[in-house]
Amino acid sequence: MGTFQTLRKAYGALKDSTKVGLAKVNSDYKELDIAIVKATSHVEYPPKERHVRKIFYATSAHQPRADVAYCIHTLSKRLSKTRNWIVAIKTLIVIHRILREGDPSFKEDLVTYSRRVRFLQITNFKDDSSPLAWDCSAWVRTYAQFLEERLECFRILKYDIDLEHLTKSSPNSTKARSKTGMLTSDELLEQLPALQQLLYRLICCQ
């Protein structure tokens, strides 16, 4: 088993270096392609910050929307093609971080893309290379479902509940309330199913 895992890691590293080499020669988005490969490499460590920051820059509002679309497509392709749980989870982490820390316009683009290409629906994903990989595969699928539900919640609510700020309901008010807390009863009833489903997916990730 140890020899197999060593060979698999070496093969993963070779695949990553090959992709980087091809990007340097053939890609019109060389820097972005390299950043995505390195941020979602087969190495069992979190994505390196400098690579994630390059992806943030590529998905910022001042970039051409075609460039942002290319980034989304590349991350989607990386997720759909891999059978390695480390690559899959690092890709999901990168997507999650862009949603939380990246440009707000990225959410709109990602929602539009995810409605057309259900790239987060990876219910058949599995890495059966080891017992650990098998167990982690289930969590990868659950994490992807949570991110998909987060996008759906954003589409329905028209704001990101994870990033909403407390605001005062009136200038004379001393108590700050969240945007969700300021909804009317009818609005809350309309949005409650999406909020409940998001909470359910979050609990499943524990």
UniProtKB/TrEMBL annotation:
Pfam families, alphabetized: ANTH
Read off the CDD domains from this record.
ANTH_N (cd03564)
- The UniProt entry's coiled-coil ranges are none
Tagged with keyword Membrane: yes
Q: Which residues form the ENTH domain?
A: 24-161
Q: Which InterPro entries match?
A: ANTH_dom, ANTH_N_plant, AP180-like, ENTH, ENTH_VHS
Which superkingdom is the protein from? Eukaryota
Q: Which Gene3D superfamilies does UniProt cross-reference here?
A: 1.25.40.90
Q: Which SUPFAM superfamilies match?
A: ENTH/VHS domain
GO cellular component annotations, sorted alphabetically?
Answer: clathrin-coated pit; clathrin-coated vesicle; Golgi apparatus
Q: Which GO biological process entries does UniProt record here?
A: clathrin coat assembly; clathrin-dependent endocytosis; vesicle budding from membrane
Q: What GO annotations for molecular function exist for this entry?
A: 1-phosphatidylinositol binding; clathrin heavy chain binding; phosphatidylinositol-4,5-bisphosphate binding; SNARE binding
Subcellular location(s): the record lists:
Cytoplasmic vesicle, Clathrin-coated vesicle; Golgi apparatus; Membrane, Clathrin-coated pit
Say yes or no: keyword Ribosomal protein present: no
Q: Which UniProt keywords apply?
A: Coated pit, Cytoplasmic vesicle, Endocytosis, Golgi apparatus, Membrane
According to UniProt, the name of this protein is Clathrin assembly family protein
